[in-house]
Amino acid sequence: MAQRILALAAEEVPERLQEALQSLGEGELGDMVTTQALKGKETAALLRGIFKGSPCSQPSGVLRRLQLYKHCVPLVESGDLHLGKVSEIIGLLMLEARQLPGHALAELATLFVDVIKGGSLSNGKSLELFSTVLTALASSKESLAYGKGELNGEEFKKQLINTLCSSKWDPRSVIHLANMFRDIPLLGEELQFVVEKVLRMFSKLDLQEIPPLVYQLLLLSAKGSKKTVLEGIISFFNQLDKRQKEEQRVPQSADLEIATMPLDQLRHVEGTVILHIVSVINLDQDLGEELIRLLKTEQQKDPGRALCPFSVALLLSVAVKHRLQEQIFDFLKTSITRSCKDLQFLQASKFLQDLFPQQYDVTAVILEVVKNSAFGWDHVTQGLVDLGFSLMESYEPKKPFGGKAADTSYGLSKTPAQQACRLGASILLETFKVHEPIRSDILEQVLNRVLTKAVSPVSHFIDLLSNIVVSAPLVLQTSSSKVTETFDNLSFLPIDTVQGLLRAVQPLLKVSMSVRDSLILVLQKAIFSRQLDARKAAVAGFLLLLRNFKVLGSLSSSQCSQAIGATQVQADVHACYNSAANEAFCLEILGSLRRCLSQQADVRLMLYEGFYDVLRRNSQLASSIMEMLLSQIKQYYLPQPDLLPPLKLEGCIMAQGDQIFLQEPLAHLLCCIQHCLAWYKSTVHLCQGTEDDDEEEDVGFEQNFEEMLESVTRRMIKSELEDFELDKSADFSLSSGVGVKNNIYAIQVMGICEVLIEYNFNIGNFSKNKFEDVLGLFTCYNKLSEILKEKAGKNKSTLGNKIARSFLSMGFVSTLLTALFRDNAQSHEESLAVLRSSTEFLRYAVSVALQKVQQLEETGQTDGPDGQNPEKMFQNLCKITRVLLWRYTSIPTVVEESGKKKGKSISLLCLEGLLRIFNTVQQLYTARIPQFLQALDITDGDAEETDINVTEKAAFQIRQFQRSLVNQFSSAEDDFNSKETQSLITVLSTLSKLLDPASQQFLQFLTWTVKVCKENALEDIACCKALLSLLFSLHVLYKSPVSLLRELAQDIHACLGDIDQDVEVESRSHFAIVNAKTAAPTVCLLLLGQVDKVLEEVDWLIKKLTSLGSDTSEDSSQASDQTQALEKGVILQLGTLLTVYHELVQTALPAGSCVDTLLRSLSKTYAILTSLIKHVSAALLTVGWLGSKNFFPICYSKLTVTPGSSYAQNWAAKVLRDTKPIPNLIFAIEQYEKFLIHLSKKSKVNLMQYMKLSTSRDFRINASMLDSVLQEHNTEDAENEPDNNQSSTAEQTDENQEPKKKRQRKK
Fold it and tell me: Region (Disordered): which ranges (predicted)?
């Protein structure tokens, strides 16, 4: 039969063809098509023949065509046919579909919907036909039966799509369906149905099927609904990431169906999806713009949902397109700083923490992206690198004009800008570790910035470079040419940059001979440079090489002071260079450095400060270095035993014209000799296995030095100030050459005395004679020190109260203090009594300790040996703290005899030292605070480190200082020491930061602080300020301080009285600290400062409320609960604050800062109330009502004074004449009125019933004053009455100066 139909179709006789087809039943027609299709022969020709014999003009033809379509759709989906045959059949059916009438198309489309619902689609090929049918149906103008009514083609299509999207889809056919909808013209509403349905299907698909579906969805988004598509994709992967984290946190997941999601599979799928989105954005720029708009909007509502690891990775991948890069990086940087600010804001307030228990941290999210990018996300890496550098450059340390940039590398990141800069460095470091191909690029960019940013601070880039080299030292070998090129520019860089750079790349010098040789060439040239910085750079480089290239046989040093040691490169330098080569190399460098001993003082100074470290790291160079130092000191040493003074000071200075310069820092030279000799005697003598020749040679210079130092000590004690041409009559002014010379001499002599004090104490072994020598040297030092202070005081110099930079080492200071205050050994008692007898010496020892701690706090290191070794510094800090703590708590200041001489008592110096140490430890040694607190607790010295409870240990120390503070408060008025009390309160404030706010100890400390403020009528302004600041800082970490503020405001009101003298204020005192001396301005300004902080919190909450109010996501119920909690918080805060203002606006505050601050604060409050009533909510009407009923009339009475008490008139006249904030306050009140009227209309509640109508501020006549003026001037003519009125009421109407202010506002 098939052959007959084919033959008839070829004969071009349609009548016979139609007869033949009519003779076939429905089943026969289908069987014939199936048989022919399975044979694979002439199927298309048969179908064309059937179509030819079934014209659409005849009902029978349409019916036959429908039968054919209904049979072919299941046939092509059966999977029995070859794909080529299927495409051929579908193509033919699609061509003929447009000829079908509307009702046939509708029936065919309904058939397709039933097929999709039944889930019988296999390859989805028939869906191409479905799209053609729907397209043809949409253009049909025919009325089609649907249910009981009729619809046109477009409406029928819409109903079909709605039905389709509401039904269940087979997960296997989702991709085919998404592809199909691309070919159908869809209206906006229809497209939204489809997109939402496809997004809902994500969770039902296998993970591997998501990327192709996303791609189809993105192509579909070209029609519209871009926001919905992007939001759905980001939300889906955000949920998957959260579930994955949950599974990692709880490995034994109870829900076994959800568990078992392989991490690597998820990351690869996410990477593929990101690639798809980026490729579509390349074709459709609007999609990229929509992505940025979406995330900006979402970030206002919920930052955690907007910036999740997936969306950040997506943004960074898109950022590679330069057109969008600036927008994306600006958005990310803003988000990062905002997140850091919000975190700081939340951490400072327990009230906010309770409202927002889950804190979002964008920095953790971005670092997670770096970690995720290890799963083949190469398209993200460039964006990460660009973002890292952008953050480091945008938020780099700022250099003040004419000053040195604050180096924060050793401290904690405090400001959001510092945190953002640190985040940039972390991104680059982690990316460097994870992605090998991009390492050389990162390294090159870092080196370029170190070179090109010579003017601005580069410490953050050097720290990054150092960390990079530590993480992968051998990577530098592949980039050695870039490092060598950097070396060529060393001479032009600041010395700090040079030192940091050389320390960072030091491991490379050990494994690359070419780099080392190129560095030596550069340094040798720099030594002869005209530029001082270049010569200093050469010295720094040579000292670094000497420290790190050991001569074989050198002792291993366990006290390495450098942060970067040889262990970072697992390479034996002796495998590369034999000992002879190293020795020759080091001696050659020493030869170059010997030339530097004849250069400027700054260059020599660097050498003297660096030799000690070289010796410790390379002990075989000891003899060469010691000989060099010996020959240098001999130039200034006078060997004659009776000659005074023992050193030629005139050789240390140089004159150029009428200017005097220091040529030889003699004290530093002697200091270097003293430390090197002490190290040599303590270390090298331990190894006596050296050759005899060497021993004899070594003993020679050792003996020379000892004899020299002994002689210098003896003669320095005998010397008078006149021997150095220094006495009280000498000129020390810095404006004359003689004065400069005398200052240089004095500083050198004081330094020499300090060096000799340390030397004699160390070698004295608690000998009484040696300690007498120490005291003799100190006498010489002290005389000069007193003269310099006296002269500086006369010149009104700021240096008057500062002692010169001490030459004592930190280690010696800790040893000296321990001996002076804590050494109870019987054998030492007699000798130590010599030193203890001098109060000046004890004060000096504590003062130097204070200076060293201050230097450590400000720069992260100290002068002298081990000054750059954090571990040694920490140990010394612990020792010093133990001594100072014992000394302060054992001997109170009251008991101590301060003597006749001026100056702080030793106990007070100890307290200042403790305060600095507690600050320094929290800044530099945050991770080691438990060990520090344990070191202070002598009774618990053997406890294991893991058992240390920081809160308990800190509370123990706090109790000691609490006792001291209570003693101060209970002492007689004459014995009260204001400075000590302030320091004690500051110490308590510093230690309180170590307490856990949720602990019982914190609550006890807060309760004690409240009790102290309530019971002590403290009249000292500074102490009152410190104590209240402590109270506020503690209270905000426990709960909201508004109730505390209300009580303080009531106390101020009771203490200062009411603005209307006729009103008697109820005498109720909550806090004794609020009294006549402290109430204004001290307590009032502190109170208003705290009120402003609460207002900032409320303002922040209102912004959160506004963003939550615009959130229409699925979690609307959760958002509603959070909104209610926020509204309740705002009501409680503002309601109580209004009662605070209620008290303050009635208080007779003295005109000046208090009134100005109060008026500014009122303006802020009205601005916040205005923004609050814009956020319409029934609950918030309470605050609006409170603001209008209790507060508004009184506030206005401040601005509108009627004749009452004379005090009120005078107060108002003065305040209103002198105060500028009044126009701003009036404007804020009027804005509040305006929106309150709108809210009243909207809520149908009369919120204006307690509001006073605004005063017309252009002109006002006071009637009563007018009457009195008229009576006094009866003689004047009636026509002049207005003038009289104006002149006589000028004082009263001056209260606002309204006309002028109003005009200014209109401008």
Answer: 1270-1307
